[in-house]
């Protein structure tokens, strides 16, 4: 049973089903894709490291299919995911929704939309999950499961099973702020150039007191189609993404900020004179909430050492990106020092390893966590939360569930050489 149909969950479900498991994918919204579609975070981060690709498997398949169908950011070519350095690219979220439906159905995954996991039946002594309680359009139901993958982003299953996790804002005061992203249309991309113009435009607007919240850290507007882009602007500081009240307030404020940043583009940036906000996400763009305590926690020292692991199930190369925690001058300084620090920025050809053990909640036998809620420290989460990495973690979790059932092994003691061999057979990039 795969919980959550974002980048991690879709990859997990398709991989498990392709290996022959009867697979159920439970998703609380009306479509697959998670943040990439429902929150309009319609950008894939770094897929190559300046010399070679770091991605493989299911995410590569999605990229190549959308490319062939003409649904990637106009102008982007294969170089972007096979060789380019430090660059992401946009995709059409509506096309990704359809492609994910197709991939899941072709693999034999049963998809259930509007199915929200609300609780788990567990054996705490055995450390096993026996099934989940969901709420769907027909009411509450219990669904038994032999293996479970928690790919909900917020570690909903782990929370329901009382499995230890770290939570943004708990250990320290800091919570990396979410953003309510949106789609902006009627942009003339022949004259709009974010990299060239945004910084000066932002300075000018700040000097003129344009914003209700004077934030110097604005990712901006990213091209997704011929005349539309995804707007990633407006931090929602101090939001606790797993508190209903806090989440609701953030969505309300986020909608106002999205309109304000569209006005900013219209007033200050060339090519945006006719820009208008088409829609905002129906999921809040949450950067961090819960991280499960796993058999291993990938940490900033591993990242700085570009460490590789015997049990690694993926490699990745995106730099750690911890957004400002508040509007103070110190925070902007901290952000710039961290983000532009040459030790942190992976150099061309570099990558770090993603070990299997970060997918396994400590001691739990038939549960894996994949994606944003996997076991990392907060800094490494600022790299691995990106969609290509989440997808590769999900694919590995799906394959691990298959091997665990076939070979009658528990998740913590799984033979990872077998797992890596199987992942390679399914085009994973494991040098
Ligand atoms: C503002 C912002 C900008 C970003 N920019 C980029 C970028 O440029 N490039 C990039 O690659 N990544 C980017 N990311 C990161 C990335 O989008 C997410 O971290 C990633 O999508 C996480 O994948 P996931 O599969 O772990 O979870 P999600 O994408 O969050 O998917 C989880 C899924 O689980 C479902 N779910 C949740 N709870 C339940 C439940 N109780 N029952 C059933 N289903 C449930 C959700 O509806 C969702 O579909 C950004 C993120 C944010 C917030």
Q: How are the SSEs placed, and which strands pair?
A:
Layout: E1 2-3, H1 7-18, E2 24-26, H2 35-38, E3 43-44, H3 58-68, H4 79-82, E4 89-90, H5 93-107, E5 110-112, E6 116-123, E7 128-136, E8 139-144, E9 148-150, H6 156-160, E10 165-167, E11 182-185, H7 194-207, E12 220-223, E13 229-232, H8 244-268, E14 276-280, E15 290-292, H9 300-304, E16 312-316, H10 329-339, E17 352-355, E18 367-369, H11 378-384, H12 387-406, H13 416-425
Parallel strand pairs: 1-2, 1-9, 2-5, 9-18
Antiparallel strand pairs: 3-4, 6-7, 7-8, 10-15, 11-13, 11-14, 12-13, 16-17
Helix pairs in contact: 1-5, 1-12, 12-13
Bound molecules: flavin-adenine dinucleotide.
| Structural class category | alpha/beta
CATH first level of the largest domain = Alpha Beta
Alpha plus pi helix count: 13
Main sheet characteristics: 5 strands, parallel
Radius of gyration from the CA trace? 21 Å
- Which ligands appear in the coordinates? flavin-adenine dinucleotide
Shape: globular
Strand arrangement in the largest pleated sheet:
5-2-1-9-18
The named CATH superfamily of the largest domain: FAD/NAD(P)-binding domain
Strand content: 15-25%
State the domain count.
Answer: 2
From the N-terminal CA to the C-terminal CA, the straight-line distance is 30 Å
Low-pLDDT parts are: none
Q: How many DSSP-defined strands? A: 18
CATH topology of the largest domain: FAD/NAD(P)-binding domain
Share of helix, binned: 25-40%
CATH architecture of the largest domain: 3-Layer(bba) Sandwich
Overall average residue pLDDT: 96
